[in-house]
Amino acid sequence: MEPTPWDGVYRDGRDLYTTNHGPPGDRVYGEKLRTVGAVEYRQWDPFRSKLAALVSRGGAPNDLWAGARSLLYLGGAHGTTVSHLADILPDAAIYVIEKSPTSFAPLLALARRRAHLYPILADAQLPERYRADVGLVDLLYQDVAQRNQAAIFVENTRASLAPRGRGIFMLKVRSVTQSRPSAAIVREARTELERGGLEVRAEVGLSPFARDHVALITRAR
Q1: How confident is the model over 103-135, as pLDDT tens digits?
Q2: Fewer CB atoms near the end CB (10 Å): N or C, the chain?
């Protein structure tokens, strides 16, 4: 098991792993477990997690989450990526926004096994409803399927991202429109982020793991 340039992420051949910081033997989505010495690892599937896809594709800064003590995650769904971030950042407070009650139940179950997760049932389009609970965070991560994804990211940056805080925006191009070229949608998203006071540090396409998805890595100016 070899460390990667990204803190808390390991590689065995082409496969990515994170250290299991949940109960021994704990699986979140049926992932493979491996034990090396006294350490248990969870395989991180880039076809199931866009953040793993980003790491697999390369091109992203090595300090994506280095030193982060707090994280706001928008669009937690059933907790696949959240669970790996909880492994990577075991000492960070991780606030997870999810508006679907169906998806929220698995998040609550996951939080019982990882005490530094704080699920919040809310709409990411309304950051004023959870800003007081979250406070300022070092890292903002967004993975939501809305036409106004870039605007949601900017509003949450203004509400909750600390000065010089970092952001990972998973742009779902076809959730914006089905009819226009992907490159145009990405350009418009970049422009909106920059107008919102963010520096776009990197742009990484996530194919073949997630088609029509692009990761935009940001920093607050």
Answers
A1: 899 999 999 999 999 999 999 999 999 999 999
A2: C
- Pairwise CA distance, residues 175 & 50, whole Å: 15
Give the residue-averaged pLDDT of 176-182: 72
Whether a cis peptide bond, with omega within 30° of 0, leads into 24 is no
Q: Looking at the domain assignment, is residue 147 inside a domain?
A: yes
Flag whether 87 is in a domain. yes
State the pTM of this model: 0.94
Q: Residue 179: pLDDT above 70?
A: no
- What CATH number corresponds to the domain at position 209? 3.40.50.150
The residue whose two tokens read 């809310």 is 122
- Look at the chain and report how many structural domains it folds into: 1
Note down the domain range covering 164.
46-220
